[in-house]
Design brief:
8-stranded antiparallel beta barrel; mainly beta; single chain; 12% helix; 566 residues; 20-stranded mixed beta sheet
Length: 566
C-alpha cells in the first residue's frame, strides 16, 4: 500500500512540475533585437535564450516572412504575441513549446425591427438573409428579428424581402437594434406572379408539415436559388442549411425524418417524407411520402404516397397512391391507385384503380377499375370495369364502357355510345329457345348466350360466350360472322359438354330497333359424360344428320332470330 501511495505521489508531482515548467516557458524573459530577419530564425533565437525548442506545423504560417522586433527582458508570451498575433495557442510538452492554431470562433448578433415605410406598421414574416453566407431568418408578429453570425473580415450585406414589398439591401450594424423600413409595391396585384402549384406549400400535406414561417420564406424569396452539394436535415427548417433550405437545390439531400428544399439534382432520401419546392432529377426515396411542387425526371419511391404537382418523366412507385399533374411517357406503379390529370403515352399499373383525366395513355392495368377521360386510350385491362372516353386499342374486363371506340372491347358487357346493344330471341336446330345479348361495336362485339330445349328425351341447357363482327351491305341489310363457345348441361355439372358454333348471319333491319336474322350454322360437339338419365340423351344431336369426328360429332344447321336494339 505504501508503494502504491508513493507511486501516485510521484505521478502528481510530475504533472505539477510539467505544468509549472510550461508556465515558466511562457513567462521566461528574453531580450532580442532583429531587423528584417526570417521568422523561423527569430523563433529559434527565442528558444535558445529560453532554453527550449519550438514545435509547429510548417503550414501554420510563412516561415520565410521577414520580421523586425526589439524587446528587452520581456516574457516569451509577449514576444510570441508581437510576432504571431492572437491566432495561435501554446502548449508545453517536455522541453518543447508547441504552436497550435487558435480555432476559437467569435460570433456576434444582428437584430432589428421591420416597418412599413408608408404606414409605420410592423411587418411580420419578412425574410432577412445574407446571400453570401447563406444565413436567413424572418421577422415575428412584432416585426422583430435576430440573427447570430460568425465574425469575418468582410462586412455582410443583408437583403430584406417580403411578398408585396420591394427588396431592400443594407448593412446592419452588429449588436444594435436596427429599424428597417421597406417600401410597399405600388401595383401589388399586377406585379406579383403566383405560381400555380405554390411549390406544394399550400397543399394539404404542405400546410400541416411546413410552418407558416417556412412557407412565407419560400414565397418571399421566390427568385433566389442556390445550388449546393449536400444538405442534412432532421425536420423542415432544422437542417444544415437552416431556414434557407427552401431556396437551395442540393445534389445530395439526407432527411432523417423529413426535409424541405428548393430542388434535387442528384439523390434525396428521407426516413419519413420529402417536400421539394421545384424539380427532382434522378432519385427520390421516402419511407412514407414524397411531395414535389415541380417535375420529376428519374425515379420516385415512397412507402405510401407520391405527389408530383407538375410533370413525371420516369418511374413513380408507391405502396398506396401516386399522383402526377402531367405524365409524359412515364410509368406509375401504385399498390392501390394511380391518378394523372394530363397524360401523354403514359403507363399505369395499380392494385385497385387507375385514373387519367386528359390526354392519351399506352397502358392501364388495374385489379378492379380503369378510367380514362382523355382523348386516346390504347390498352385497358381490369379485373372488373374499364372506362374510356375514346378507345383506340382494346379493353379487357368484365364490364367495358367507352364513349366512342375504334378498337375492341372484350368482356361480358361492352357498352359504347352509338355502339351495338342488342337482345335477340332465337331458335336453332339444337335448342328452340335461345337468348343472346350482343354488345360492343359493329366491327367487334361479344355475345352472352343462354339456350334451352324442353323436349322430353332431348332436354338440354346451353350457356356460353361468343364474338362477332358485322358489315353493312345496304340501308336495310347487314352481314355478320359469329363464333361461340358454349357448355351444355345434361344432368351433371361435373361433366359438361362442349359446343362450338360458327355462324354467318344475314340481318334485315326492319327499323332502328327491330331486325330479323337468319343463316346457316356449323357445329362441333363433344362430351365426356357417360351416364345419362331421362329426360336427357347421351347425344343431344343424335336426331340430326351429323358425322362422328374422334370423340365428338359435327353437323350443319341453321338459325332464325328476332333482335331488339337501342
Amino acid at each position: 500500500m505504501k508503494h502504491i501511495c508513493f507511486a501516485f505521489f510521484l505521478y502528481l508531482l510530475t504533472l505539477v512540475s510539467q505544468r509549472c515548467l510550461g508556465q515558466d516557458l511562457l513567462s521566461k524573459t528574453v531580450s532580442i533585437s532583429v531587423q528584417q530577419q526570417r521568422l523561423a530564425q527569430v523563433l529559434q533565437r527565442v528558444g535558445q535564450q529560453g532554453g527550449f525548442s519550438f514545435s509547429y506545423n510548417s503550414h501554420l504560417f510563412n516561415q520565410d516572412s521577414l520580421v523586425s522586433i526589439r524587446v528587452h527582458r520581456q516574457t516569451v508570451n509577449y514576444v510570441l504575441h508581437q510576432l504571431l498575433g492572437d491566432r495561435f495557442l501554446y502548449k508545453q510538452t517536455g522541453n518543447y513549446l508547441i504552436i497550435q492554431l487558435n480555432i476559437t470562433e467569435k460570433f456576434y448578433n444582428v437584430s432589428g425591427t421591420i416597418l412599413d415605410q408608408e404606414t409605420g406598421e410592423k411587418v411580420e414574416l419578412a425574410s432577412i438573409y445574407d446571400k453570401t453566407r447563406l444565413l436567413a431568418t424572418s421577422s415575428n408578429d412584432q416585426g422583430h428579428f435576430r440573427l447570430r453570425l460568425k465574425a469575418q473580415k468582410t462586412t455582410p450585406l443583408f437583403t430584406v424581402s417580403r411578398l408585396g414589398y420591394h427588396d431592400t439591401t443594407l448593412v446592419i450594424p452588429p449588436d444594435e437594434n436596427a429599424t428597417i423600413r421597406i417600401k410597399p409595391k405600388s401595383v401589388y396585384l399586377q406585379e406579383v406572379t403566383v405560381n400555380q402549384h405554390s411549390g406544394g406549400e399550400n397543399s394539404w400535406l404542405g400546410r400541416r408539415l411546413l410552418s407558416r414561417r417556412l412557407r412565407s420564406q419560400s414565397q418571399n424569396l421566390s427568385q433566389f436559388f442556390v445550388n449546393l452539394p449536400y444538405q442534412v436535415a432532421l425536420t423542415p427548417g432544422l437542417s444544415s442549411r437552416g431556414r434557407l433550405s427552401t431556396q437551395i437545390v442540393n445534389t445530395v439531400s439526407i432527411n432523417l425524418l423529413g426535409g424541405y428544399n428548393a430542388g434535387v439534382n442528384g439523390v434525396e432520401v428521407a426516413g419519413v417524407f420529402n417536400i421539394t419546392k421545384n424539380n427532382v432529377r434522378s432519385l427520390q426515396v421516402a419511407g412514407l411520402f414524397n411531395l414535389v411542387g415541380g417535375s420529376v425526371r428519374g425515379v420516385q419511391i415512397a412507402g405510401l404516397h407520391n405527389n408530383i404537382m407538375d410533370t413525371l418523366k420516369g418511374l413513380q412507385l408507391s405502396g398506396v397512391h401516386n399522383f402526377s399533374q402531367r405524365n409524359l411517357g412515364a410509368l406509375q406503379l401504385g399498390g392501390v391507385m394511380n391518378v394523372t390529370r394530363q397524360a401523354e403515352h403514359s403507363l399505369q399499373i395499380a392494385g385497385l384503380s387507375n385514373h387519367i383525366k386528359r390526354g392519351s395513355s399506352v397502358l392501364q392495368i388495374a385489379g378492379l377499375f380503369n378510367s380514362h377521360s382523355g382523348e386516346n386510350a390504347r390498352i385497358q385491362i381490369a379485373g372488373l370495369y374499364n372506362y374510356a372516353r375514346h378507345l383506340k386499342g382494346f379493353q379487357i374486363g368484365i364490364i367495358n364502357q367507352a364513349d366512342s371506340s375504334s378498337g375492341a372491347s372484350i368482356g361480358l358487357v361492352n357498352l359504347t355510345k352509338n355502339g351495338k346493344k342488342t337482345f335477340s330471341l332465337s331458335a336453332n336446330e339444337l335448342v328452340p329457345l335461345q337468348l343472346e345479348f350482343k354488345s360492343g361495336t359493329p366491327h367487334f362485339y361479344t355475345v352472352l348466350i343462354a339456350g334451352y330445349s324442353p323436349a322430353y328425351q332431348r332436354k338440354l341447357f346451353t350457356f356460353g360466350l361468343g364474338i362477332g363482327s358485322e358489315f353493312t351491305l345496304s340501308d336495310h341489310f347487314d352481314f355478320a360472322v359469329e363464333f361461340s363457345s358454349q357448355s351444355t348441361y345434361q344432368g351433371s355439372w361435373s361433366q359438361l359438354g362442349n359446343l362450338y358454333r360458327l355462324q354467318p348471319i344475314l340481318r334485315w333491319r326492319k327499323s332502328k330497333h327491330l331486325a330479323f336474322v337468319t343463316g346457316p350454322t356449323a357445329s362441333l360437339y363433344h362430351s365426356g359424360q357417360t351416364v345419362f338419365a331421362a329426360p336427357y340423351l347421351a347425344d343431344p344431336a343424335q336426331h340430326l344428320p351429323s358425322a362422328k369426328v374422334g370423340m365428338g360429332r359435327v353437323w350443319l344447321g341453321g338459325q332464325f332470330a328476332i333482335e331488339f336494339s337501342w
